[in-house]
Every structure is written in C-alpha cells, then in structure tokens.
Amino acid sequence: MSEELSGLRVVEIGTEISAPYCTKLLADLGAEVHKIETPAGDPLRWWGPFPGGRPDPDRAGLFDYLNSGKTRTRRDFADERDLAAVRDLIAGADILVENLPAGDVRRQDWGLDGDSLARVNPNLVVVRISAFGQDGPLRDRPTSPLTLQAAAGWVNPREFGRTPVQAGARIPEYIAGGYAALGALTALRVAAAEPGRPVEVDVSAYEALLSTLPYPMLLAERLKSMGLPTNTKAAPMLGIVRAADGWIGINCLTGQHWLDVCAMVGLPEFGEHQIAIMLGGPERDEFFAKVQPWLDSQSVAEIVELAQAMRIPAAPVNDGASILDCPQYRERGFFVPGGGEGWRYLRPGAPFRLSGPAAADADGTAAGPGEVDPSLPFRGLRIFDLSTFWAGAYLTCYLGAFGADVVKVESIQRPDAHRYSGALLRQGDDWYERGPLWQGTNLNKRDLTLDLNSERGRELARRLVAGADVVVENFSPRVVEQFGLDYDSLTGIKPDVIMVRMPGFGLQGPWRDYVGWALNIEQLAGMSAVTGYPDGPPCNLQGPADPIAGVHAGVALLAALRRRERTGTGQLIEVAQIEVGAAVTAEPVIEYSMNGAVMRREGNRHRSYVQGVYPTRDEDDWVAISVRDDDDWAALIAAMDAPQLGEDPRFATAESRRQHHDALDELFAAWTRQHSAEEVAEALTARGVPAERVMTPDRMYDVPQLDARGYYEEIEHPITGRHRYPGWPFRISPGPSRHHRTPPPTLGQHNAEVLGAIGVTAAELDELAAQQVIGRRLLE
User: What is the DSSP string of 135-150?
Assistant: First the structure.
C-alpha cells in the first residue's frame, strides 16, 4: 500500500459503489478510512458475487473489493450513544464522504447537515455524492442507474438496428466515486486556506457521466452550424468482430489505420469507403460479408499480433475469465488475492503505481503548500504537459482550470493528434484549431511548440522541466524515453519533480509498446464484454476510458503533491489505462475467480427488478423506465391507466415480474409508442417512478438542471467564437467559482511568452522559428 496519504483520516457513511469507491482510492494511497454501516448493513453485501452463488453478506466479493483495508463498524443512528461515537469519529477526521440522496431527512437526523458538522469539526472536508447534486430542479427526481445513464447520454444504440443499451457492470457508479476522490483531495487544499469552516464538495453523478463523454454537445453544435446531422450513428471500424476463437476489437482511429486494415484483410478496394461503412450504408454489409472469412481463419492472438505489428490498434475483448490469462495483466501482477478465511478470489489491484525516493533518502526540503488561494487551489503549480489525445490532457485541463500554469507542448511537425479527431470538420487552412474534441480537452493551458526530435528542442524542454513541479505524458513508453524525458532523466534536472506517466498498457510487460486508444482499453479491461445484449456481441462504450484514467491520475497526483509538501520528495506516478479500466469493471473477474462463472451481458435489465428502454411515438426517440418495487408498479399501472395489470398474477411480485419480463416489455412498449418520451418520463416521475428520455447530443445544452448548477462555461475562442464548454461534475464551497479560466490555445500561441520567461531572446525566437523548432502553423 502507498503512503502518500498517510495520516489522512476519512470517515465514510456510504453504501453501494460510489462512496465506497471514493474512499477505496484514498485508502489505496494510504489514508485511514473508517466505514460506518447502519445495523442493516450496506446493501452491496447482498449483491454478490458470493462463494458458490449462495447469498452471504459476510462473503460478498464486490463489497469486499470496495471495502477491504478499511476499519468497519455498524452504528444505530437512532441510538444516542452510537450517534455520539459517530460524532467523535467525525471530530477527528479530515474528510467525511456520504452518498445519501439529496434532500434526505436522515442527513439532519444523523447530524450530517452543514451546521451540525461545523459544530463538530469546523475544519472538515465534506463530500456529498448524489444523483443530480444537492440543488437544482432535478434534485429530488426519482432515479435508477439505468435512468441516470439515459438522462446523461450513456444509453446508446451500440448495435445497428437494436434498442439503445446501457453500460454494464455498474461502471458509471465507479465514475462518480472517482470524481468524488478528486474533489475531496482538491478541497483539502481549499480547507488549508479556509480554516474554521467545513468545505463541502457537491458531486453530481449525472454530471460525472456527462463529463466522461467525448464532448458530443460541442460536436453537435459544430455539425449543426455546417448543416450536417447532429446525431450521427457512425461507429468506429471495424469495431468488435468475431475471430476464429473469440471476440476482437479492431479500432481505426485515423484514415491511415483504415487503409492499413483494408490491406491487412486483403480488401484494399474498400479503402475509399470508410465513412460510408461507418455510417451504415450498403457498403457496410458488403464489407463485413467479405471480411468475415478472413476473420474466421485467424485466432484473436494472431490478429492482435499482426495488427500491432502494422501499428493498428487492436485488442482482445476480455471477459472475467480471459482477462486473468491476458499476458499484460498477468506479467504485471495486477490482480491480487481478496477474501478471508475459507473464501478467496482475485480482484483488481490499485489503479496507480507510485515510486520514487523514500522520504528518509530524499535530498529535498518540505515546503508545505505555500499560500493557497481557495478560488484557485492549484495556483503556483507549474505543469509541463507532454500529453496527447484525451487522457493526459484531461488531467492537465483540470489542473489548469483551478489555477495551475499548464504549458502544453506540441510541435508543428507532429501536433497533438487529438486535433485530427473529427475529420468531417476540416474547414479551412486552420482546421486543426477548430476540432471540438481538442478544444474541450485543452482549455486553461498555454501552448508551446517544440520539435523534440531536434537537440535544440530537447535542450529547451530540459530548461523548462527545471522550473516545473509536474510533468505529464501519456504516449507509449518509448516516446519520452527516446527524447530523454523519462523520470530518471528528469530527476537529474529537478530532483523533486513529480512525473505522471499514463501509457495505455503500462511501462513494463510484453505489450508495453502496443498502440491503443480508449476503445482498446474498454475491450482489454472487460468493459465491452459486459455491455450489450445477451444474444449480441460485446459493445464499445465509445470513449469514457480516457477521462476515467485522467481522473484517477489526478487523484494519485494530488496525493503525491501532498506527500511532497510533507517530505520534499518527488514521485513517479504510473497510471496504466488498462488497469484503471479493470479497476472500474471489477465484478466480472471477481465472479469468475470466485465461482468460475463468466458474467453475462444483461442488456438493459437489472437482476432485482424489471426495467428497460422502450420506443416512443417519435422515431429514434426512446425512454428508459425502472420499476424498483411494488410502489413503482402501482404507480406505473395508474399512469398507464391499466388496472387489469394489478390483478394479473404474473406481475404480482418483483420476482414474478422479472420471470415474465418479456411479456412486460411488450406491454410497456405498446404503451410508450402512444406517447412522446417526455410525456412518459413526466407522467412517471410525477408518480415517483424513475423514467428518463434517452438523451441525444443535440439536446445536451437544453437541460435546466445544468443551467441551474452552472455546469457549462461560456468562453470565446479566437477562431471559432463562443462555445459552452462542459465543466467539472462537482462544486466546492467555499472554493472555485468557475469551471474554466481561459479558452483553448492556438498552436504555438504562447511560444514567445513561455520561452522568453527562461531567457530566450527575440533574435533566438526568430532563429528557432526559421529552423522549425518552434512555429505557429502546422507543417502539412
């Protein structure tokens, strides 16, 4: 276990996944976590998996994974002595994490409201996780995991011609927990500057899901301005396909990847039809009919090896069984034993690895956090940002938002490849400045171009590192090593530097140099295998692995900064993205290692109650409905004006309703087809039944809840004009009042400013530009 958060005391009054995962991450970094359960116990104890499949609340694998390493007690909050014991724990804590529903009266009864906590511990950081946040018009809206996914745009048509489907294995609940941990450690910096009153972190799980999407609202806005359809059904190619012995993901990120794939499978004549095939045109069926015989003749391992040799991002689609045999996970020893006496299983290890000089061996001097501005808690922090695409850039965007000076390094020869995302939007000679995905990820930064293939560029990089606190990169490992910018080299320049490395596959292992992006991570980590219909293929989640990795890297970085302030020592932080993906998809590997059972894809279903996604009277408009209990069932019958269903013995209990799920799906669909999605959602939520219209990109700016909470930040870009950029899914009070500070920079915009600060003269800048070491325009 790491010791970065040694001495940090955390109290958790949480259930299920979001709050326990938040505190698990803090415990992984050395915090002391005390979990308090009610006498009834955390409901996750009854979720499983269980040894032999027999319910046993003391041997629940997923509960154990999320709560091992914590001190656990049960307290009756109706008993004054137990309440006094809880207050004593809170009085000695640094952080309290809870996930009671917003507006829950128990918060007052248990003394967890702001005023009560201020009397008990005025220096406390309080993290509150709820579905929609602690305020706004949707605060008290009934919700379920499915309907929350639907409202946030996570329920998608992942297979052509089929009903949109949710993400499996409860992955979204981990996402809220990850952001909560990030918010908690950020708030600690605010609390240091604002002693004497609690600092509250209000985490919205809804906004957390929106924050992991690849900026579909920005993309839709741009497509609309060009007169193009805003809700494209395009899917990355080839996507997930079946080989001779299993599923494989072949993921074309660029046009060159597509040409290489066509050559690999012996179908070069399709090289000019990528867009038509992605959009599902007639060429799609023809292409897949012709490629399948080649796929059938090859094993997954053979295709992965061939594709990777051609630098095509390809990966096996792992499930809970195959992931344990995956060479990269196995060689890195990622899965570790869990359980107790008489029962054992394997679970994911910590999703980050920290190494560096021990505090006793360090030559540095502890400096503390210095003067902290509560409105900009990272002010004074200097970041040298070598990141590309989304994962690393997401982390540095966050740091810059709250005050860090982030210098993003590109080159005019090879800019950040994320600028190439969105080929349909390449308008004008400055097309590389216009991409909504790049813009959304690179707010709050200064942009510097340096040709690191040149000695002069590397020399300038070393001078900049000498003044940096943190260096961030997420290339494949060999890239920064070739530039002489690996951790060992950097410590020779600045001994207390913290370096965050975020390779897709890790710094060691047989696959360390494989190419990959978000879809590979989803496929390797088991995320795709649990998403989709039982009778269909595994399905991609379409990108959230990148920001999820960025959030986890942020948690590790803030812990390392806290350690450096205490000891004066830097750190190497390794965040292998495939390990983060597996950490938030823990249940399948726990189930298999415990019981030898491969977790099935469940579509939109739930193991305890009936639910689904249903068509409405409007084509391509869907509504998600969950019927959690008998009260929901009675309310639904009333909304449908179908009292006869209440007398039907097939639907008398939750279990009988699940046994006749198909029949209920037909009845629900017949009713929803008569109405709009909004009519269904409003009729049901007014009666307390979770229901939501499935969100699409073109409507993501039209959500009063987001307006009420100030989720979007309107900023002027110098080329593309004003845009509303998504913010962060929590609010810290007291704390930052804005989500972003500056627009995304143009290529090389800050060359003179950044290099001038290290003594480069105007004449030298001209010379560097003439030698193309720096520049302001892309070299085509």
Answer: SSTTTT----HHHHHH
